[in-house]
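Hi support team,

I'm opening this ticket because the web form for multi-chain structure prediction keeps timing out on my end. I have pasted the exact lines I submitted so you can reproduce it. The total is 449 residues across two entries, so I didn't expect it to be a heavy job. Is there a limit I'm missing, or should I split the entries? Thanks in advance, R.K.
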Amino acid sequence: MSNPANLKYTASHEWVKTEADGTVSIGITQHAQELLGDMVFVETPAVGRKLKAKEECAVVESVKAAADVYAPVGGVVTAVNSELDSSPEAINSDPYGAWMFKMKPDNAADVAALMDAKAYQAVVDNEAH
Amino acid sequence: MRNDCGMFDVSHMRAVDIKGNGVRGFLRYLLANNVDKLTQPGKALYSTMLLENGGVIDDLIVYFMNETWFRIVVNAGTADKDIAWMKQQAAKHAPGLDIADHPELAMIAVQGPNARAKVWEALPGSKELTENLIPFSAAEMGAMFIARTGYTGEDGFEVMMPAKAAPMFWATLAEKGVKPIGLGARDTLRLEAGMNLYGQDMDETINPLEAGLAWTVDLKNERDFIGKAALLANPPQRKLVGLILQDRGVLRGHQVVHTAHGAGEITSGSFSPTLEKSIALARVPKAVQVGDQVQVAIRDKMLAAQVVKYPFARNGKSCL
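Hello R.K., no limit was hit. The queue was backed up. Here is the completed structure from your submission:
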């Protein structure tokens, strides 16, 4: 599965999608879910929580390990995907559909400055070597 | 694996043969469980091997082959210290014995309800020899040593053989549809089955009575064994219990458990696919009872868990 070209990415393996209303949806990448394996638990941040860029704000936990998820940019949490409470495995089957939380970014420019799919792929390739 | 079968390469485990006159008397003193329970050739016994102070050097399986030959299978990470300890004790108490380990033996575990049938298909002649083997016993077939043992809570065999014979055996099983399974999954299976892992649930600083291993320590008669005096002098203050997480999350080793009787610690924890819940083994104060509610500190939260009897799963089914 390739990384969709319409998304932005972080070096800590989150993807970021800008929605029509100016909020962003955040999830973890194909590469991240593959490394973690069978997902069994997702903890999302509280709606209304104010986050700084790179702040730990969510947890994904597989049978193998727990991993922190970081805020890609500064902003306020506006929604969480509560469906993942009962079906965390959606992150494995559809990593780019299974968004974890939405934020209203402090600056849209911060989102624009994140990596594109090509730059992110270079990060992944680099990790593999 | 719990519904069909799978195979594991566990060649890292080490077989140690102890041979000579008086081997039974030596093992009666060396091991916490009593080898006098072994009367039928091929029968096996699970035991701990203790330090003088009662700490667990290792857990192991000892097979009685004949009165001048017992075979012990020990953990990989502890094999060298185990063998050094056995030789040191033998030098003092039974200098005539021959103690030889066999790193050249490979070991493949085939486990699950259909495991024995697949091994019989893969090894012509093995069915006649092993279909009447009761659990926890073994038979020899040429250079192969076939034991009805395992570390998954399912039926099956652990087969030892010269390393050069292992690739063919593995490939034949694969041809018959037996899927390879990794050691991560094996760890989940053994936890569901309520089996201890050395280095995690017990080690040299823990006595077996605080590690859920009282059943491997035979204190019933006058027999003396290494560690016995220390166990009798120091009654256990803690015990190993099962936990089921009621809140959402995953129990892991080293998380702190808060009980009405004081704090304890998770020794092994994971997500159980069979129960679809997170489960753990935890060492807690002795007064904690099955059914008690406890709290487990996970990151910045206190999550609710219940003390339960383990094993959690055996023969494909939840035990709870």
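A quick check on our side: Residues 117-128 of chain A form the longest helix (12 residues). Let us know if the file doesn't open in your viewer.
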